[in-house]
Amino acid sequence: MLSIERYQRILAELEQQKIVKVSDLSGILNVTEKTIRIDLETLEKRGLLTRIHGGAVLVESEERLLPIQERQSGHSQVKKAIAEQAMTLVRPRETILMDGGSTTVEIAKLLGDMEVTVITNDLNIAHILQDKEKIQLLVPGGTRIPNSTSLMGAQATELLKKLHVNRVFFGATGISVDQGLTVFTSLHADWKKQIVECAEQVTLVADSSKFGKVALIQFAAIDQVNEIITDNRLDEQIKQQLEKRNIQVRVVKNNYAERGGN
């Protein structure tokens, strides 16, 4: 088993159990306890867990990357403000590719009065858009990725290669100027890599808590992004670094971001 596969299994166990033991992980993954300890040390350095005697626990932080369910439910007002800003970029008769995620779901809720084509692999977004008459909806299909509402498959990937897409809206688990855009699973990484490469305009929509974080798998370099929509808690130094790379950063202002609440 590759190290990246072990990392994914360890984090999956941690998300379910909240605490993991070295001895248990050694048995589950069929590797030595020494290997597990090295893996936990590596994941701790990335800020994904905290080691304790004989195992590890989730990071005690409001901005932790895990668990996924809690991460997606937070910052709802920020995500709505980001979605409103994203809508100002959409033009009639464009073809838009919308990746799955809580922020892109908010964008989907605002669509409906504009004649556009939307391509998405996300079941939640498809459900929101299915009754909106002016929207031509295309769902490439595939098999549902475990613990998500996203579909993925070889047929969908091949279809993307044949489509002309004006703009892609997508998110990432971690965003780093140096280490790029990252997620936790290889299936999500494969899909996101494809959608970033097939659009004329690549628009990253993410709240400021994602910046400066690094998950397991990189799917794109930061230079592949044309513009970013985020909130006004984004570190000014990071904003300047992004702009030096000719990435347009659109910052939304809202009461939530200014209060710093959850």
TrEMBL record:
Coiled coil: none annotated. GO terms for molecular function: DNA binding; DNA-binding transcription factor activity. It holds the Pfam family HTH_DeoR. PROSITE patterns: HTH_DEOR_2 (PS51000). Residues 3-58 form the HTH deoR-type domain. InterPro entries: Carb_Metab_HTH_regulators, DeoR-like_C, DeoR_HTH, NagB/RpiA_transferase-like, WH-like_DNA-bd_sf, WH_DNA-bd_sf. Keywords: DNA-binding, Transcription, Transcription regulation. PANTHER family: AGA OPERON TRANSCRIPTIONAL REPRESSOR-RELATED, HTH-TYPE TRANSCRIPTIONAL REGULATOR SRLR-RELATED. This is DNA-binding transcriptional regulator of sugar metabolism, DeoR/GlpR family.
